[in-house]
Predict the structure of Amino acid/polyamine/organocation transporter, APC superfamily.
Amino acid sequence: MPTATTTVSPYKISFLAGTAIVVANMVGTGVFTSLGFQVLGIQSGFALLMLWVVGGLIALCGALCYGELAAAMPRSGGEYHYLSQIYHPAVGFLSGWVSATVGFAAPTALAAMALGRYAAGVWPELNPQLLSVGVVLALTAVHATSRRAGSRLQVVITAVKVLVLVLFIGAGLLTAQPQAISFVPLRADWHQLLSPAFAISLVYVSYAYSGWNAAVYLTGEVAEPRRNLPRILLAGTAVVLLLYVGLNFVFLYSTPIPQLAGQLEVGYVAASQLFGPAVGRLMGAVIAGLLVSTVSSMIFAGPRIVQVMGEDLPALRGLAVVSEAGIPVRAMLLQTTLTLLFVLTGTFEKVLLYAGFVLSLFTFLTVLGLFILRVRRPELPRPYRTWGYPITPLVFLALSGWTLIFILRDKPTESLFGLLTLLLGLVAYFVGRKVRAT
């Protein structure tokens, strides 16, 4: 039976397991689905690859900044904990609210939906929606049972994922028939880097990189967090940047852009072009299997935010309850319920843009908080300091802010839903305060 008293587990997440969680959170839905949307507005091979380089630069700068915050304030909860301390508890609550309702539930749903679509492309008789639901429920059962089993599962399936992608990139480079696309920049290509199409496409790319901060949600469960967390964040992000640039180069180098345009299953399309329909179907099945890792990692990490919120807020105390194994089962079930709601009611592109907007907003505020924390609390121990400060956080803020402005301008519906989510969170915060007062 669950108990409200946290049971201390002797098992701690290692550097390897933490890096696996970061890689698994990042390598998933976005890189296997978003190129088809990007080529609708951008035809330049150079500009398309630069999307992934710029997205990786944003993620690396963010990881450097989060490394300092995680080492200085080593507690699970991620942005919820940082923003509560830096700005105000209301801002932290909104961040936790977004993470609980959107930050993990929506990306988990997106990964499950993509998994279902890839699997249905290989086995048309499958119902993709039912498969998505079944995978989410099965992985929830695993992670709700044992932290050690969930962690080991994560390391194994992430290692398989990285190996498969490296083999795919290598095979693609050796066997591809080069397409009529140039990766050498022309004068017109530089103008595309400042275009609205590039900024909107960067939303998809930023979403593909969005798991770079995953480990900070598990700070309290990481072995030697002050030492390991910065290393986990940087190692995981650097590995994924190399994989993403290589993978998208192979997609573009091997497959005509008209075949990719508007396609969700770009990995399946590229594999069919490279190796023929039979091997393409096999690769589609493999990618569907790889997406299990992404769904698994988000189910593992997300509930820890809700757990920490429940520890701090009396109105949410029930969500802080953990099992005898120290697992926040109730918080996990809440996230799973929201995930299934997205799977059953949302469309892929709208869910992606909606999630991308609100998540970018709070990572922007968190990195901005690095400057504020240094001014307000210069005495705070900082075992790790952001490399390249203040340039690295300024680069992150400039690129993220530019993307947010274009989302607000060109995707008002998704932005409005994101802002409505924040308004509902603010109402929930003040209602919770009244409950505590009474």
User: Anything to note?
Assistant: The two ends are 29 Å apart (CA to CA). The domain at 15-431 is CATH 1.20.1740.10 (Amino acid/polyamine transporter I).
